[in-house]
Design goal:
Elements (H helix, E strand, L loop, with lengths): L1 H33 L9 H15 L7 H18 L2 H9 L4 H4 L1 H8 L5 H14 L8 H13 L10 H7 L13 H14 L13 H17 L3 H8 L1 H5 L5 H17 L17 H26 L21 H10 L6 H7 L3 H6 L1 H14 L3 H13 L6 H28 L20
């Protein structure tokens, strides 16, 4: 009974976030229409494409959620002329190598039933040449191109092999738990987004899903510790889009995001300045919120729409702590975190939770601790954290494995420096050790 009630509350809660995102998008399009020389007006094509992605993400809910259907119909009518205006048509003519990028909004609308045969003819001609020219693309961008080719109802069949792009992407290897950047994590989340068609199809990858989930926990730790709502949302969609059972740490993060959005009416983006809006008029404040937070609110819509699928709803029943991890591991690692100078809100919230959730979140906590130590090159701190983790039974996963490898490399380096220092001290005895230089016929590069 308790689980059913929790699931009902969660479904209603998630659907509110979807409707909020669609309403927010209407205001964003109003800004583009009314003020051409504005932050949103200057990136109008990007905003229009992402608005179309929001419509596509929530489309499966239209038949079962009347409020979503009403909001989608209204938004689509506003979006269609913006997706196919003269600026987009000119871009297709002038830049066929990026034809699918320019026409993303049209392709998504076409897929949703808002067809335009004349625009299709223009795009087909541009894409025929675009397949032969255009920029070099990173793997996650190749996955995006394959996705667009496959969902476009009137396009030529895709010749790309998505499995190769997935293998070359961030999904094909472990995430760097110590040094991955925000850009690396966005590549990871976008690969999931496109390779699964926003959760509509199974991921074609040779890697085990539990290994990808381990990477997602590392990424989630990074996003939470940076207090980056936008990145946190994108990492969280890994669970519903891959069809993974929700991890307790992911549910904890999702709950925090929902509470914050319902409190503010939006999720703060990286550029949002809470102090700056204090002296603004209500109209100026709302415009600043839309300019700096539209992407964060949109991707929250993607996430909640994916989670609202009948087989992807968050399961609030307890999940067993990972085998090998001892009870109390979460408290030990939280104690280490609280001794650092950086005290983000999420850490304080987690400290108020029960021991079961804290233990389940131990791999995430460990990833945050080792990353902080690596960022400051504090190997003594890294060793202390790793020893604490091993005593708690946390010996597997990207964070402990990569941390141990770093300490081994540092030990080898230290031993090498000692040998070099010994060689220098023996100069008076005429004993000099010099590494052989490469000969002219040796390949050094």
């Amino acid at each position: 009974m308790a689980t059913a009630l929790a699931s009902d509350w969660t479904e209603d809660d998630l659907s509110r976030q979807v409707v909020l995102a669609l309403g927010f998008a209407t205001g964003v399009l109003d800004d583009i229409d009314s003020i051409a020389d504005s932050p949103l007006g200057r990136i109008a094509q990007k905003v229009v494409a992402e608005t179309a992605m929001l419509l596509y993400a929530v489309a499966p809910l239209r038949a079962t959620h009347p409020k979503v259907e009403t909001a989608c119909a209204s938004l689509a009518s506003r979006l269609v002329p913006l997706a196919r205006n003269t600026e987009v048509q000119a871009a297709l003519c002038m830049d066929p190598g990026k034809a699918l990028d320019h026409a993303m909004a049209h392709i998504l609308l076409d897929r949703l039933g808002y067809a335009d045969a004349a625009f299709d003819n223009l795009l087909q001609g541009a894409q025929q040449l675009g397949r032969q020219v255009g920029p070099e693309r990173l793997p996650h961008r190749l996955i995006e191109q394959t996705w667009l080719e496959r969902i476009w109802p009137h396009g030529a069949p895709s010749r790309r092999r998505q499995s190769e792009a997935v293998a070359a992407s961030a999904l094909g290897r472990p995430l760097d738990a110590l040094k991955a950047s925000r850009t690396d994590i966005y590549a990871f989340t976008h690969s999931v987004l496109y390779a699964t068609d926003m959760g509509r199809q199974k991921l074609a990858s040779a890697r085990r899903r539990r290994d990808i989930e381990a990477d997602a926990l590392v990424a989630l730790g990074f996003a939470l510790d940076a207090e980056d709502c936008d990145l946190t949302v994108e990492v969280l969609w890994v669970w519903p889009m891959l069809g993974l059972r929700w991890h307790p740490a992911a549910l904890f993060a999702l709950k925090g995001l929902i509470e914050r959005q319902e409190s503010l009416g939006f999720l703060p983006g990286i550029g949002f300045d809470a102090q700056r809006v204090v002296g603004m008029s209500p109209e100026q404040r709302d415009r600043h919120v839309r300019e700096t937070c539209y992407h964060t609110v949109y991707v929250m819509g993607f996430l909640c729409a994916a989670a609202l699928r009948s087989d992807r709803l968050p399961d609030l029943t307890p999940r067993r702590t990972k085998r090998g991890a001892s009870r109390g591991a979460g408290a030990v690692l939280l104690d280490l975190l609280q001794k650092d100078k950086h005290h983000p809100q999420w850490c304080a919230r987690l400290a108020e939770q029960g021991a079961g959730l804290q233990d389940a979140a131990a791999p995430l906590l460990l990833s945050v601790l080792v990353r902080r130590a690596a960022e400051t090159s504090d190997l003594a701190r890294l060793r202390l954290v790793l020893n604490a983790a091993l005593q708690c039974g946390l010996a597997s996963g990207p964070a402990p494995v990569q941390s141990a490898a770093l300490l081994r490399r540092a030990q080898c380096l230290a031993e090498g420096l000692v040998r070099d220092a010994t060689a220098v001290s023996d100069l008076s005895a005429g004993q000099v050790s010099v590494a052989p230089l490469p000969s002219d016929n040796m390949r050094t590069g």
